[in-house]
Amino acid sequence: MGERKGTNKYYPPDFNPAKHGSLNGYHKTHALRERARKLSQGILIIRFEMPYNIWCDGCKNHIGMGVRYNAEKKKVGNYFTTPIYRFRMKCHLCVNYIEMQTDPAACDYVIVSGANRKEERWDMADNEQILTTERQEKEKLETDAMFKLDHGGKDKEKLIKALPSLVELQDHQAGWKDDFQLNSVLRKKFRTEKKLIVEKEEKDDAVRARTNLSIPLLPERKEDKRLAALLSLQTPDSYEEKQRGKRLEISSRPWFNTSLVCTTPTATPTTSGSLLHKLGQQGKEAAIAKALGSSRTPLIRRKSDPQEFAPSVSSQENVNIEQDTNVSSLGSLVPNYSDSDSDHGH
Hints:
By secondary structure, the protein is an alpha+beta fold. Helix content is 44%, strand content 14%.
């Protein structure tokens, strides 16, 4: 980095390569500039990347794997001949400092202070994964012939037990081996489904345009078709339901027609049948009311003449008073045509 910064730079007249070596030596600066400000203490500032997910002890926030920090790197020891480095960095969400160091024995990083590791590790034996051979076991396999023979026998037994699963996995992988054929089948299926969807949308658009609707239409069902047919034919129940109701009514009818015997209820109609029956009854009542309203003529009551229906003294002496009352009431209901045109014509 310092050599790149020194390229095409100004060299002063008193610059001596044998004495200064480079422009950094002449200006008495380090090539890493600010990153080497603590180099006298054995600390170098580097760009450190978080190796796994952690929880900060200061703000209790989650810090994901791969987040980068400007960390102070220094050597704290050795594992045999491998140096152990410690990294100190400040959390970007609070003022807490996090310290981590390398663990060459486990090929991992260990948190020293300032955070807790988010436990996402698992045991390979619990997950039925292939375990790696340890170093001591490798040395025995290379040096001890009896141990190698015994280990080979155990491996063969494991192979015989796992053979059905391996065959099943191979058959499953063989079914997906021909990528072109699988892609062709999948695309053909998508084209067929797309064609059906387009046809359904065209039918729905035609129905919406014919009925002047702007709502989404649900797929048709057998119950909907039957209900629509019954509504158009004005038949509450089908022929079989009517016959079944008649049979039930006949079988439950009393043998003796007396006023004490209660009438038996008829067959209970279905839900669609009851709805259609109500609609049919309302339509019939509306038609009857309309017919009566068009043919009805107003009745004009006239004042009853007490002498018109009064009996004579000579011939009606023994007439009952109750008959006079009935006749007078009937006369009040006779329409009055005295003011009509037919009377003036005569």
